[in-house]
Each structure stands twice: as structure tokens, then as C-alpha cells.
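Weekly structure sync, notes
Attendees: PL (lead), two postdocs, one rotation student
Agenda item 3: pending single-chain targets
PL asked that the sequence for the first pending target be pasted directly into the notes so everyone works from the same version. It is reproduced below exactly as submitted, 384 residues in total.
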Amino acid sequence: MSSSKNGKLILTTGNYAVAEGAIAAGCRFFGGYPITPSSEIAHYMSRRLPQVGGKFIQMEDELASIVAVVGASYAGVKAMTATSGPGFSLMAETVGLGVMLEAPLVIVTIMRGGPSTGQPTKASQSDVMQVRFASHGDYEVIVLAPASVQEMYDFGIYAFNLAEKYRTPVIVASDGIVGQMMEPVRYHTDFEIINRKAPQVPPEEYQPFEVFDDDLVPGMATAGSEYNFYVTGLTHDITGSPDMTPETAITLVKRLCDKIRKARSDINKYIPWEEQHLDDAETIILSYGINSRSVPEAVERVRQKGHKVGLVRLRTLWPFPEELMEKLSQLGVKKIIVSEMNYGMVIREVQRFRHLGFEVTGILIPTTIPFSPTFIYEELLKEV
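Predicted structure, written out during the meeting:
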């Protein structure tokens, strides 16, 4: 172990790193239930949270875990849980509740092979639509996609900052390889801490969902404080009281969606995508997460043969970076190849932008083993 003014450099796993990042961001409550390949996060939190004055609770299942996290959030505590695909399925309804209550919270999901029980000890990218559309109804969500153990630490911090800023659940979608592999990580302190917006009016004037600012995010009071309020998962007005009128439903749902859509550019500036060789690229390979780590080598080998190929690595999956598609169009990119360890998920989002003149193809295999540089290189040669 070494240390510097920028923090300690240690060798650790992705699961431990994301937990430590969460603690650095101020997380002081974890409610969870063991599930491979995320169980190490709960194990780590059970030891570390008491050391920093936090609370760890192993619940009886995933349903109780995320409900406890929502409750802790409304009690004024930064809270998180961690799971994998089957557990996230059980959490889906409460993801929607978190959106409706505008409860800041973080969910880390370590993807594994599926569907059903699938391959618990393997990796996967087959849950990227699950994390976006888990719950019913119209809503938007923020999903981050780390590709290294260092990013697991960093994104643990970023996820809490985004959750607090926009009063919404934020999901860190990693996988069984990044979660359990070991790499050097710097536990740095080069970041700001964002806390939720406090009530903007005195207690006697407070309405829990009244918005005063252009960001469409209401100030949040703490349960049990001098601010008395009521909240419900039902469609509600600014007082938090149930209101079943069409007008209230339209106003509420549009605001919940628009606060994230409006923030899309800021989110993608805060956690920008990675790009290489866009200045002359005619073909782009787009990837994310563990499967992106082999792409740079493959691209360099293809470029050595004279082909104008570049790469983009998504670090934020949702909201999808529409600005990226517009940029690629302006640069004259003719083809986008989407590489992902599933049978075609993010590619569907890219295909929405074919009107900008792209040809969209994919390297789409529902495997649990990331593509090697040589495999990607050979696939690229078929496309250019």
C-alpha cells in the first residue's frame, strides 16, 4: 500500500472499491441481501459502515432491502443497496416507488448471465434494459457503466452525487468480472460532495413536491424534523396528497421525466464518454463496461492497416447521450458498430439515430466471456 496527497493506492476488487466510493460520498446506510456476484459489497459494508458511524442491515430478501433504503433516504441518510439481476427483478417495483417519492438512493447491480438463475458466477451485459425499464409507468433513470476497478470507486461517488442532486434512484451497472477482479485503485479525495437540496421555505409553508427552480427538483425535508409532510406512491399533487385527476398525473409524470431529460447534457459532461480517433473516423465501434477494455488494442491494429476507425466508450448508459450521436454525425461518421455481451440492447438505442445517416451494425453475442482484442480486430476487418 502506498499513499500520497491524492489518496491511498491499494490493490482491491471492484466490489470493495464501489463500496468504499459510496462511503467516501457519505453513504451511511446499507440494506441488502447476499447474491452472487455482488455479495462482497454487502460483506464489506457490514464491516466498514460501523467504523464510520453508519448502519448495515441484512434484510430477509431484496424486496425488504430496497424498501429499507428508501426509508433511510427519507430519514435523511445517504443509502444504498447492491444486487444482481434476479435480485434487481425483485426490487423493480420499489425502483418506481423511489422515482415517485423522489428518494435519492443508489443501487449497484453486478450483472451475471441470465435469464432466470442463469450463470451466477459469470459476467454479463444482459441487464442494461432491465436497469432502464425495470418498473412500470413513465419514468427516467440514471445508469452508470464502469469498466475498471478505479471507476467502481469513482462511480460510487458520482452515483451518490447524481442521486442527491436530482432526487432520484441512480444505478451503477457493473458485471461479475469488474466486480470481483483486482486492480490498483487510488482512493483519492479529488471530488466534491453534493447533498440534496434542503427545503426552501419555512416549515409552515412547505409542500414536499413544490418546485421553485429550473432544475425541476423540489427541496427535500427529513422525516421526523420540524417539517411535517405526507408522501405516497400514488399520483399526487405538490402537497404529497393523492390526486387522481388527469391534469395532476400529466403534470407530475412530465416533471419527473423532464428533470432527468433536461439534465442529460449536464450528466454526460459530469461523466463524459471516452473517445479516440474521432477526428478522421468513418467507422466507430461503440462499447461499454467490461467488454470495452479490449477495443482500444483492436482499433489500433485496424488503423495500422489504414482503416479510419475510432472508438467510443459509454460511461453513462441512461439517459442515453443523444449529443454523442449528433457529434458523430457532424464529424462525418458513416457506420457505428455496437459491441456488447448480449443479443442486442444498446444497439436498439443507437438505431434510433439512423436518420442522421449512420449505418448501424453490431457484434452481439449473449456470452459471459468478454470479447478478446483479436476477436474484435477480426470482426472490425469484416466491417471496414
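Discussion points:
- The mean pLDDT is 97.
- The first helix runs from residue 14 to 25.
Action: rotation student to compare against the earlier draft before next sync.
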